[in-house]
Model the fold of this input.
Amino acid sequence: MLQRELTREQAIQVGEQILIAVEGHIIERGYTYFSDGVVFNTRVEQGQYLTSDVQGSEVYHARLDMETVQNSTCTCPYSRICKHIAATFFQMYSVFENPRTFLTRSQQPRRATFSPHLLIPAYKYSHTAPAQQDTASVSSPLTANSSVKDWWAFFESWTRNLFAAMESYRASSELLSSYQNVLSVAASWPKDRAQLFVIHANLFHLMKLTQYVKTYRQSYWFLDLVQTAERLLDQLEGTLYFADIPALLTHHQDAIVDTLQLTKQLKENEATSLYWIFAYQMLWWMLLKKPEWMQEEIHVLDQLINNEDSSAAEKEKGLLLRAHFHVMEKEDEAALQIWKRMSRLNLSFYLSYMKSFARNGEWQRFLDWTASLTSLIGQAETQQYRLVIAIWQEAMQQVGRSAECGSKLKQFLPSSYHEYAAYLYEERQFQQWIDLQMSFQVPMADISVVQVKEIEEAEPTLLFPFYLREVNRLIAERNRTAYKEAIKLMKKVRTIYNRANQDARWERYVEQLSAKHNRLRAFQEELRRGNFNL
Done:
């Protein structure tokens, strides 16, 4: 069916867009869905859209825009190009090409590319009626007019057996199931009120998770719970981002004041976990930003910091939170000076701020932060690095400095290795390119044959150290197969030395190499078979 309605050229063109627009881990998960056979009812609509139903935690409807992939949509909570859309793509691609080959290609290093979609939180809030939900229906006495205090009393009652279930079954699944099910309580409420309810349900379950990890610190599912906390925070960010904040502040003042008081109480938690701190910062940054409220909280934090009776841990917690308000008041340097002294804070701690600067078009402010956090960016995990570097490139362009991007990638090493190497090669800075490969000890097998050939033709002597290092590596493997590979490479290098009129230098190298490894009988035999004059 698809083979008659689509063409190979369309599949390839969509694939190129997928490589630019979609994160690698999403492509991999989409391939898994496709290979598991959970994509069905795939069809072409209006000649432009490829739609399908994909069985995930429920059945989601994916709509792949084959002309502009970024405009694709899915009914799942993920706000960007999701794994269901990727699975739909693989369903189409498999008709014309090998999907496994595409997956392998997607796993190769790719240049980070900016898109405004990168700045949108990963999860979007969806106000869905109960009849449309697959989650369990929850019986509740709550109404849209119930107070925040009533909400939390219900949450406590609803989760009275949660810890026991988390210990008996998979902890993360039980917690997320509890959170997702309780959202059905507000599904028929007015949207603004429901959004507030979702924020509190999320915050409550995040606190439950913090209590559980503290109580059962040796839980087998601890690492899984870390991912659960991150997922809850992603959903909290999405709910706040897509909420109509002015409407909430205007029409739900009592609930907002209660939210303010609960947020202030978060300070009572230990600072050993950053999860509640992320929630605290998010709520102040996106919802509770009235100047008078901020000044009250700043006063409380300053008292905690300056109180002689405060412990060192309490003072550090106060400083960590106080720095957030420095950022809100655009005193970035003061905040960064505090946070950078706290070695446990990695790049993820700063990402929400940096994305917010980019959303607001504060490009120079974003660049100032990247300059201050260079070492963290250089050591970041791949996904976070690619996000920051994509926004950084856009920021450089916005302030008229895009021409500097290539050379400045060096400051973000080692994370920027692939982009920086590509820049050096494209600029024909072959000496620096070779130095980079040598510094990172890149195996010769990982280097493009085309690149090596071009350098051989342009400046062959630059490759001598690289080739000779590879010869030494092969010899160090201490087996006959590796020795044979070393001799093959030596023959090639001998030809290059000859073309460069450096025969004498080559002969000295062979003599020294033979002498150094004179006890390796098998290697000596291969040298003689290779017709090297000793």
